[in-house]
Amino acid sequence: MVGDSLLALFLAAFDILVFASGGIDPEVPGPAWYVAVPIDLAVVAPLVFRRKRPLIAAYAAYFISYAHSALDLGVSGLAALAISLYSVQVYVGRKQGLIYGGAFVVAMVVTAIVKPEPSMAAQLLFSAFTIAFCWLLGEFMYARRAYQRELEARLHLLETERDQAARIAVAEERGRIARELHDVVAHSVSVMVVQADGAALALKSNPELAGRALGTISETGRGALGELRRLLDVLRNDRGDDEPRVPQPDATALGDLAERMRAAGVPVDLALGDGLDELPAGVSLGIYRIVQESLTNTLKHAGAGASAAVRVQRTGDDVEVLVRDDGAGRARQLQQVGANGTAPQTGSARQPAPRLSVAGGNGLIGMRERAHVYGGTLEVGPAVGGGWQVRAVLPVRLNS
Questions:
Q1: Burial class for 70, CB neighbours closer than 10 Å (0-12, 13-18, 19+)
Q2: What's the first-to-final CA gap in the chain, in angstroms?
Q3: pLDDT by residue (tens digit) across 4-37?
Q4: Where is the composition biased (Polar residues) (predicted)?
Q5: Fewest beta carbons less than 10 Å away: which of 129, 183, 212, 228?
């Protein structure tokens, strides 16, 4: 508004000087100063607000310019109309600019009719040139401002998308780290707890068995610490160097996993199909973690005497993972009930432990996420004939 105020004062001062020097035509008497000076000020005063209230300022200058033109007080009326046309075109839009430009033309025609003069043709030509110039300049500035607004909107959108992508990436990375930590800690700690309980029971009656259990605990604990250190090194290392990394387990390591579960006391029948060594790294790791979590749940929840069967088969572009346990002899209990006609006694060694619900905790959530992230499916629930079953199907995308 400071610049617009200076512009208005300059135009008003010019017309006041013209009036003080005798007017445009000294031979024609002009109005009194207390009429001319207020009109000179009033016709340019709306220019101060042309950016904040462009339409109101434009039409205020338009109507005052009739009196200014009728009294021949100078050029500030024409200048105010031209600046107002530019302001409406830039700050309001083309439609309002066209309307105001038409009103500008009407004002010029009315002036020519009311005050016919020999030089009126030249004045109309100059007015037409002024209108065209202000229109084109306003059109250029309007297009430029629209382009700038579009750029600002796109930049804002890009910044928003960048921030959103960063938040999504952080959330995905946190979820991935949480899944890895859960898989490592839950599996290893479950094995260690079961082995510790077995060692405590066999410490007096079978010291050799207790020693083997303690050895398994020690080996499992060292392996878990190694994987935890690897994850922590990845989180702490922000240098981007090429330090050696321990490779992630994959489907080819299921044999070692089955051996560890057998050592922990869960007989595992493992059957692996062909082509598992050619799977993408992410899919292969997901298969390993799903089997690991399923066997860990068997170890924790299936109870004493449970056994598990693992089948991993690749058929075309899909890999099917099936992990099933007998639920601590649940099927055998039902057979006993049918044969003896009596239910098993409470506290029996074959009484099944509480099972995981289908909704599941972090383990089942992690398995579902691993399956869904590769476009696969996961089914978890009781198996036909007793026991518990986990079935996952993961598509293979070798070109991804």
A1: middle
A2: 59
A3: 889 889 988 888 888 888 766 666 677 888 888 8
A4: 334-349
A5: 129
Among the listed residues 153, 139, 137, 396, the one whose alpha carbon sits nearest the alpha carbon of residue 284 = 396
Residues of CATH 3.30.565.10 domain(s) within the chain?
A: 254-400
CB 387 within 8 A of CB 324: yes
Q: Give the type of residue at 377.
A: T
| Entry pTM | 0.45
Kindly report the backbone phi and psi dihedral angles of residue 270, in degrees, each rounded to the nearest multiple of 5, phi listed first. -105, 130
Q: Which of 56-65, 114-123, 365-374 has the highest mean pLDDT?
A: 56-65
Find where tokens 């707890």 sit: 193
* 293 contacts 367 by C-beta, under 8 angstroms: yes
Domain 254-400 coded CATH 3.30.565.10: yes
pLDDT per residue as tens digits for the range 54-108: 889 988 988 888 888 777 787 888 888 888 888 888 888 878 888 888 888 887 7
Full 3-state SS string of 232-292: HHHHHCCCCCCCCCCCCCCHHHHHHHHHHHHHCCCCEEEEECCCHHHCCHHHHHHHHHHHH
Mean pLDDT over the full length of the chain:
78
Rounded distance between C-alpha atoms, residue 80 and residue 11, angstroms: 9
CA angle 275/277/278 to nearest 5° reads 70
